[in-house]
Amino acid sequence: MSIELILQSAERYREDMFRFLRDIVAIPSESGREGRVIQRIKEEMEKVGFDRVEIDPMGNLLGYIGQGSTLIAMDAHIDTVGVGDPGNWDFDPYEGCEDDEIIGGRGTSDQKGGMASMVYAGKIIKELGLEGDYTLLVTGTVQEEDCDGLCWEYIIREDKIKPDFVVSTEPTSCRIYRGHRGRMEIKVSTAGISSHGSAPERGINAIYKMAPIVAELQQLNERLADHPFLGKGTLTVSEIASTSPSRCAVADGSTLSIDRRLTIGESWEEALEEIKQLPSVAAAGATVEMFDYVKPSYTGLRYPKDCYFPAWLLEEDHEVCRTLEQTYVSLFKEPPLSTSGPSRPTE
Asked: What is the pLDDT of residue 89?
């Protein structure tokens, strides 16, 4: 099958794809509220001829083409973050915008654009008779913005679906990403004793106990482990809060959240221990623990998960990487750019 014929088919469905993308962007779908957009995508999958379309108990959409022995999954999470301050947008984020070069709106790149592309790729596969000894699974996954890997952990463990490999449509500016740092969410808590704000010496201020911890966390970030391909681990304090009987009282509790990025070779146990060993943490008697995620999906299902997602890396000569490079060259007639720099086209 000529690649030019596939490209011609994609061009022929340009307006259909754009219309579909604008439709799903117009449906708000923040994590935990994806039900309407899942139904709209299901409708489009059925319209273009997917062999089978299902929604699992968590609410993930599973669209199948073919019945071959190799299971290839292509994924787009279809939940989004919020829009923030609407005044910072140049247009309505749900009405979207479109010109000769871009379609804008909440979720267009991350990742509803990927979903629109995959649905119409399925139509082209069926139309041109490109089925073979493989099964294509197109997934529209939920709650990813809140809890990165939760949706796929559910698909693998509970739906009993384990693809031979997965292509994620996370936006990469057309680069081939063969690895990614991991992530975990860490909570540090200090306890104090409240007293009236006019006599702070009678209490123990939990915020003051937290202050040197913040400074040492900033220093810890500079000495975390490094990796020649994925780079170094990082941490940042992302939130800080306190409790107090009133605004005129000494704070009796303080918590902070840490966004911890893990490189190859780092474990979640080591990441927690590095913080526990900080002198300021020991002096404050602070507790250090991993956050967990218990928010229900839009179907009402709760699937508790520790907020830890490991780093991963495929070797440059892995069969999946070589296949992606070959496909890239066929499509764009130039060498692909990977995260390690320009790659040579493969024959």
From this structure: 95
Q: Which residue in the list 44, 75, 144, 146 is annotated as catalytic? A: 144
Q: Would you say the pTM of this structure is higher than 0.70?
A: yes
Looking at the predicted structure, is the pLDDT value of residue 148 above 50?
yes
**Active-site residue, 144 included:** yes
| pLDDT tens by residue, 24-54 | 999 999 999 999 999 999 999 999 999 999 9
User: How far does Cα 118 stand from its chain's mean position?
Assistant: 18
Q: Is residue 204 scored above 70 in pLDDT? A: yes
Among 79, 110, 185, 325, the one annotated catalytic: 79
Question: According to the model, what pLDDT value does residue 340 have?
Answer: 45
Please confirm, yes or no, whether 306 is among the known catalytic residues. Answer: no
Structure tokens that stand for 64 in this block = 């199948």
127/106 Cα distance (integer angstroms):
31
Where does the chain show beta strands of DSSP type E?
Answer: 52-55, 61-65, 70-77, 97-98, 103-104, 134-141, 165-168, 179-180, 182-191, 234-243, 253-262, 287-290, 292-293, 305-306, 308-309, 312-313, 337-338, 341-342
- What number of CA atoms fall less than 13 Å from residue 232's CA on the CB side? 9
Among residues 192, 146, 185, the alpha carbon closest in space to that of 288 is found at: 185
Strand 182-191 relative to strand 103-104, pairing: unpaired
Q: What angle do CA 310, 293, 143 make, to 5 degrees?
A: 80
Whole-angstrom distance, CA of residue 50 vs CA of residue 17 = 16
For residue 277, is the peptide bond before it cis, meaning its omega torsion is within 30 degrees of 0?
no
Query: Over pLDDT 70: what percentage of the chain?
Result: 97
CA distance 177 to 50: 28
